[in-house]
Amino acid sequence: MTDVEPLGGPGGYEDLVMCDALTLSGLIKTREVSCVDVMTAYLDHIERHNRSVNAIVALRDRDELLAEARERDHQLADGHYLGWMHGFPHAVKDLSAAKGLPFTSGSPIFADRIADADDLFVARIKAAGAIVIGKTNTPEFGLGSQTYNPVYGTTATPYDTSRTAGGSSGGAAAALALRMVPVADGSDYMGSLRNPPAFNNVVGFRPSWGRIPEAGFIAQGAVVGPIGRSVADVAQLLSTMAGPDAGAPLGIDEDPEVFTRNLERDFHGTRIAWVGDWDGYLATEPGVLELCESSFDAFRNIGCRIEAALPDYKPEDIWQLFLRWRWWAQLGLVDLYDDPQTREQMKPEFVWEMEHGIALSALDVTKAAAARNDWQAALTKMFETYDYILAPSAQVFPFDKSTHWPTEIDGRPMDTYHRWMETVAPWTMTSLPVAAMPVGFDDRGLPMGIQIIGRHGADRAVLQLAHAYEQKTKWTQRVLPPALLPS
């Protein structure tokens, strides 16, 4: 790990891939660089670096992608500018559908599936001018914060390629860290937009439920959201992915243009609660809490007050609520479990989720819904005193990528495949906006992150605090993966 000054300017492929997304967008719009130059730079960079981390999968044919980039240049020459992502290479997380591309969800059951349409947010990204070059890797059905599957293999963090990139947006975060895409999309139920940014020293954002439209009448835990190398890039991508849609009756009806505005704001007098390990309830690897707490000075430097404080709700009750709600959510795929041929291809963790979900009664779900309301009320009460909440993004540092999941933390056994990520579960269950920000590195050069949690619907306010913190720390810009350092 070495602090470096980032490269900049269109002086070569290294410079192009090192540009932040908004700078690159400006260079393309003013035709200082061509879309063909950008595509060539990124494809060359992917060819050089992807094999070390296995982040981008199902990469499309180079000639086809360059032909699409030439078409973007012709459009610009004719005065037809599609949007801020005009000519951007973009890889879609393999839990989402991009028309004509593999859509495996990391499962051998769907190893040959090709998407016949775009998911809504993918269509919006394309409409903004992006060229989809392939997919980013994910664990099977997104289950587990470790990105490995029998279709595409395992994804590593570029900060130590023997270790996991996290999950389930591990491919997206590792691709960003290695500068193989300008921005990325991800999704999050149990920290998948929070754990991978922590393990890859990038920025993630879990939006309020409904900010990016989801079909249906039940606010489940899963959301899609943006990942980037800066908060400004993340906010810009959110503006593209977000916005109301007629097919999402519970969506937030607010113009997403708000996320394109300046993020500067005065934070003097802002009160922040630090929940840490919930007074020892959460097991944490030595060094995690200390590194997260080292971020406090940056928050204080922008005028915030940080106090240790906990909501008036038992964390063990939140965990039981989370388990039941997630079991219920997985039952949308119960037909795969019911078929013996597909069930035998499922990872054990998926079978575990299904069997617990099937055992739920209507009364169990009703009680879980009531408990979720009670937990929401407790947090609402806490936000009467505090403006934001801080929590670790993970309870462990990136671990060996051959390990399916940590079975213990600091001598304390983990009783499920995801118990080691319990730090993210409380905020999922209230569908609050959360920014995942880097906090630095341990003495092994392994990265860690922190969650900035805000009130429901206060997505821009969370991004503003994240931006102010970023200006004081600049971890993503300062500390590059070893493979990108001058030899």
UniProtKB/TrEMBL annotation:
InterPro entries, alphabetized: Amidase, Amidase_dom, AS_sf
Gene3D superfamilies per record: Amidase signature (AS) domain
Signal peptide: none
SUPFAM superfamilies noted in UniProt: Amidase signature (AS) enzymes
Top-rank taxon: Bacteria
Domain Amidase, chain residue ranges per copy: 38-463
PANTHER family cross-referenced by the UniProt entry: INDOLEACETAMIDE HYDROLASE, TRANSAMIDASE
Name recorded for this polypeptide: Amidase
Source organism: Rhodococcus pseudokoreensis
